[in-house]
Specification:
This protein has 510 residues and is an alpha/beta fold. The protein is 29% helix and 19% strand. A seven-stranded parallel beta sheet has the order 19-20-18-17-21-22-23, sandwiched between helices.
Length: 510
């Protein structure tokens, strides 16, 4: 039983709201705030600590999360009924919060797989990449032949994590020279080159818009010992295409099995940061704890990629203040403006996010959700900004422009080189992302109890037991090292990850 003083969480002295730890009923006295609750307030939701006039800004994290759409009384539930989106001037203050990062010593290590080009893998897969939806079934049939099981051919190759089909629903009926094709090819090429793939087969139909020859020319790819390609039409149909793929994979497995894990610096870890099914606790527990783990990783020379541009909207000024240069900060602002124009062109709005599940969990506006989301990025300098699926070539904390939809966002991060994903959730998630393992972090104890078979780390004890953010960050960092060393994540044990390849499609379907 919580005491009266523990019923809510105050995040900043200047805030106009506090967060309910448990369901609050009308008449409950919040003695630390000097107010009495009016009506029912669910866990994770906001309670006004003072009267707020209509049109006045409402603050959480000492940042504006919206504007009162009608007068709000002290003790009242603050949510969609009385809090609305609104525009306000952001002070981008490029670089004012940049602080040097002290290198950690001794440097952390993990058991990685060294590739011939010097990159380090966290997993060892063979990939089957379809250029077009029409060749997806062939890729899946080849992968099915090597599906894990008592009689699987993979059993003879214990150092290979699997054969995975990377398929999608596009590749034709699109402008060959358009932005959509550029993104698709860049994404597929990022996977074909990914360190977690020992080798890859690129399989096409033969007549599609995304021709294998044009794809390889555009992305600087050539067939060789680690990359093979062919068209279904050229080899005689589905059966022959599947047989050819199985034959090639059998040959590749022999070399792929020769790898051995060995100690390597943590600087070879690149994490894609994700949050899905966020709730009112996300910005209090799991996201800042993941941010603390990111700070540790960066101190050890590693890289973390923050993304989901629609879900940092309204909080981007907190990132530009950490930009190492005005140029880097302006690159982020340019992506924000692109999204404003993009949504307006499609007759949408940035506040279409949060989702119904986010709102049920206590989040009201995209401003509020974004402020919690950026906490995943920790506190270190923002060293660069990348477009979707671009290869990440800097170490440290970086940003990649992606949609907020988790599979599309994580697909771009993996294409950019992420060899591990960390995914916070308040409502629940069972996401996986081959060839990169995905760790799930729960924001609250109730979710951990309800969905423990899918969640890797519980951050609810930050809210309910007072565990320090820094301590939880250390726990997450240690699990990152263990997972990068080969320890299976929950989603890997269930077999998630192949169907979650979802490249960002922009453009007309022709």
């Amino acid at each position: 039983m919580l005491s009266a003083a523990q019923l809510t969480i105050r995040l900043h002295p200047n805030d106009d709201v506090v967060i309910a730890r448990v369901q609050l009923i009308s008449g409950t006295e919040l003695r630390s705030e000097g107010v009495t609750v009016r009506g029912m307030v669910p866990p994770g939701h906001k309670v006004a600590t003072k009267a707020i006039a209509q049109g006045a800004p409402v603050r959480r994290y000492n940042q504006i999360i919206g504007f009162a759409s009608k007068p709000i009384a002290a003790g009242e539930h603050v949510h969609v009924n009385n809090l609305a989106m609104g525009d306000f001037e952001r002070d981008y203050a490029f670089g004012v919060d940049v602080r040097p990062v002290a290198a950690a010593s001794p440097q952390a290590t993990f058991m990685g797989i060294k590739r011939a080009d010097g990159r380090v893998a966290t997993r060892n897969y063979i990939g089957l990449l379809s250029t077009v939806n029409c060749s997806a079934t062939v890729c899946k049939l080849i992968a099915d032949h090597f599906r894990p099981g008592p009689n699987s051919p993979l059993n003879a190759f214990p150092n290979v994590d699997g054969v995975v089909a990377i398929t999608h629903s596009v590749g034709c009926g699109m402008d060959v020279h358009g932005e959509g094709m550029t993104l698709l090819r860049r994404t597929l090429a990022g996977y074909a080159r990914h360190a977690n793939f020992h080798s890859a087969l690129v399989i096409g139909l033969g007549c599609e818009a995304n021709q294998i020859s044009s794809f390889k020319a555009a992305e600087g790819l050539d067939d060789g010992p680690k990359l093979h390609s062919y068209n279904l039409q050229d080899v005689g149909g589905t059966g022959k295409a599947v047989a050819k793929g199985i034959e090639l994979v059998n040959e590749l497995l022999i070399d792929a099995n020769k790898v051995q894990r060995e100690p390597v610096p943590a600087s070879h870890i690149t994490i894609g940061l994700q949050c899905g099914g966020s709730d009112g606790y996300s910005g209090i527990s799991a996201n800042p704890a993941l941010g603390a783990a990111v700070d540790l990783l960066v101190a050890h020379g590693g890289t973390a990629i923050l993304s989901e541009t629609p879900e940092i909207y309204g909080a981007e000024h907190l990132l530009t203040r950490r930009a190492v240069s005005r140029e880097v900060g302006e690159k982020l602002v340019a992506r924000i403006k692109w999204w404003e124009e993009y949504t307006a062109r499609l007759k949408g709005e940035m506040n279409n996010n949060p989702s119904p599940g986010n709102k049920a969990g206590g989040l009201t506006t995209i401003l509020e959700k974004s402020l919690g989301a950026v906490a995943k990025g920790g506190t270190t300098p923002l060293v660069d900004v990348y477009e979707y699926a671009q290869a990440v070539d800097k170490h440290g904390f970086v940003y990649m422009d992606t949609p907020g939809y988790d599979p599309v966002s994580a697909t771009g991060q993996v294409a950019g080189g992420a060899n591990l994903i960390c995914f916070t959730t308040g409502r629940g998630s069972a996401y996986g992302c081959k060839p990169s393992p995905s760790l799930k972090l729960a924001t609250n104890n109730a979710l951990w109890t309800r969905q423990e078979e899918d969640i890797d780390i519980n951050c609810g004890d930050i809210v309910d037991s007072g565990v320090a953010i820094t301590d939880k960050g250390r726990e997450i960092f240690e699990m990152i090292l263990a997972t990068a060393s080969g320890q299976a994540s929950r989603s890997e044990r269930w077999g998630y990850g192949a169907d979650e390849f979802v490249p960002w499609y922009i453009g007309a379907v022709m």
